[in-house]
Amino acid sequence: MVIEIWSDFVCPYCYMGQISFDQALNEFEHRDKIRVIHKSFELDPEVNHALNETVPFVLMNKYGLNIEDINQENIALVKQASTLGLSFNHLDSLRDTNTFNAHRILQYAKVQGLDDRWIKRLMKAHFTEGLFIGDPEILISLAKEIGLNPNMIKTILSSSLYQKNVRDDQYEAVNIGIETVPYYIFNKEFVASGALTKSEFTDILKQVWLSEA
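^ thats the sequence. predicted structure below, dont judge the formating
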């Protein structure tokens, strides 16, 4: 079975969905016959780091939300994340982040077999540690931490390497009609989206596996 997952590092539902998916996959009896392919998706490719804006500020100005609604949503996210053993901190002060470079490193990490570790490390850095993952030095440090070659990361960040890989994933998402993440495609047929629970993922895995038997 092949499972393709489109996600972004700054998407809280992607983080929670990833953890639930991992829990279901780890307990699935046929997990050794499943290949997971992580795909790049930018929630907001137009982010300008020079503006140094916080996520709540952007949400208020871009979508007309008020701070009370945002705070209530953050409280709900923190509670939901805690049920998965995740700590969502600094949600009120997170900087709006362009993730294109982080996705370029993801494409390199895929070649090294470290894409799953890279995704979860960056999500933890963003949501739990409040790190600014748009900073090249932070990306280099985190990449080194999970076993990626820091010199190669520097080369990627100072060049156009892996740009096409990211764009190809994004073009594929557009062609499929993906507008939000997380988004999952099982064996090119069964589609699911959102931060599904472990039970929901387990049911889907069993259903797709039986349908291909």
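The beta strands are 2-7, 35-40, 183-186, 190-193.
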